[in-house]
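Good day; I would like, with your permission, to put a structural problem before you. What I wish to show you is a protein chain and, alongside it, a tokenised description of its three-dimensional fold. Here, with my thanks, is the record as I have it:
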Amino acid sequence: MRTPGEGETAFPSSPAAAEQALPGPRRRPSVVLGVGGGIAAYKACELLRLFTESGHDVRVVPTRQALRFVGEPTWAALSGNPVAADVWESVHEVPHVRIGQGADLVVVAPATADLLARAAHGLADDLLTNTLLTARCPVVLAPAMHTEMWEHPATRANVATLRERGTLVVEPAVGRLTGADTGRGRLPDPVEIFEFCRGVLAGRPADLGGRRLVISAGGTREAIDPVRFLGNRSSGLQGYALARTALARGARVTLVAANVSLPDPAGATVVRVESALELREAVLKAAKEADAVVMAAAVADFRPARRSGSKVKKTSADPDPIYLVKNPDILAELGERRRQGEGLGPRVIVGFAAETDDVLANGRAKLARKGCDLLVVNQVGENLAFGTPDNAAVVLAADGDQVEIPLGPKEALADVVWDLVAERLA
């Protein structure tokens, strides 16, 4: 577990967390899973399974309306714990107080517009809202509702109030809603909610709270014709790890994803692009209001000078050569825009350099050219970095500092990067 540094704010410890730190057999982390009365309640079953199969002790607290979508026996069977929605059940155990007091994490998925309103105004008319008032551990709310409800000024005000109090309210995803409707308001993928919560349980500091971050991820594709393209082997795993860890540390994240086949990180605003030119447009637009930009995407240096409007056919003749032109240098452009005017562009700019040989020498030369504050240099190749769950790197800083990150999970590398970014933002 990472220890918060000077000037950082850690999530408040719960009595259960303090008990876990005592010597002796390790207690399973205690999670309260609240379930609101929305159609997405069925997805909470998968979230419950992810928690229980990874060793968490989960107590499900549904609202009365949630039980109209998924019954009490389902929650009890999947969690292995009793289920109650009313404060009048098992009164001798004082559940309206004890459940929240003993939790290491409270997560509500889905959190309906009604539930957000009741939580923001401190109402306590059922077991779940009582639990939210008594919890002294991190609280995560994953909203799900129709787009109009999410965008209503009352809901936005309630979300702002909850966030000001330290509640982690993740942004809903964009996608298919109830019926034929599509828009923002969809419950994030349960796997992504679980990963978000796992980051919170790991004790990540809230040192990026309220910061607006832009992250690029994946690899661009430059079209030759409607079928073929020039591309690279980037999977987007490192960029998505950066997004997840930043979200768990309280940031507002815009993720510009180039050709990535991964579920959206819970709470991120995802902008999907294909080519380097599309990525440049999206990053520069989002960077105007960003505190920091991290360019983790593998952006093609070149693109075909001409794109065929139809598939290039294979014939007996040799194919025509493909002439290439340079793509814009987005990282250098970010640095140049910042230099052009005071306050223009992000305060911290981070680049990535994928190298096959002379790694540090090439990295230092790139750092000098690009004008970024930090450059994450890593060696790539067969079974190195691209498409793997692990990564190793050296972070070079414009002020001469150098930080080595040993081989480990990409989330661990991401946390080191955010440590360095947070120091510079502070």
